[in-house]
Amino acid sequence: LILKNTSFRGTLDPNPTMERDLGGYLRRRKQLDEEEMGVAELLSWIKGAYGAEETRACMFDPTRDLEETRPVMLPLLHWFRESYPYYHQKCMACGHDDTTMLGTVRAGAEGDE
């Protein structure tokens, strides 16, 4: 609504790219909302990628306490980290492991489309 009402544009941020950035983020959010993968599809994907028996072992068990859950879940978490290195807790460029967040960056040119 703010983007549609031009009277607010100047009061939010004097930086003229703010409107473009916000529009890019909103478009990406809409794309994510339109992607449909329900719980059943996600579970099916995990079973196929990680293994059906391994996935079954990680499923919720009301009789399992926290200490018993850790050794069951750690292999899944390690598999995920190795299979999807984007989630490693280190810089992909230099390998440094200090991952303190300094801020966010604006969407690139592909986010503007």
Structure description:
The chain is mostly helical and 113 residues long. Helices cover 56% and strands 0% of the residues. The chain has helices at 9-12, 17-34, 39-50, 52-58, 66-83, 109-112. The radius of gyration is 21 Å and the shape is extended. The mean pLDDT is 75.
Short description:
The chain is mostly helical. It has six helices and no strands. It is extended.
Layout of helices and strands:
Elements: H1 9-12, H2 17-34, H3 39-50, H4 52-58, H5 66-83, H6 109-112
Which regions are unreliable across 5 or more consecutive residues at pLDDT < 50?
none
Question: Structural class of the secondary elements?
Answer: mainly alpha
Helicity level, as a percent range?
Answer: 55-70%
What's the number of extended β-strand segments?
Answer: 0
Q: Could you tell me the mean pLDDT?
A: 75
Rg calc: 21 Å
Q: Estimate the global geometry from the Cα principal axes.
A: extended
Written as H for each helix and E for each strand, in order along the chain, the element string is: HHHHHH
The share of residues in extended strands comes to under 5%
The CA-CA distance between the termini, in Å, is 20 Å
The total of helices stands at 6
Query: What about the largest sheet?
Result: none
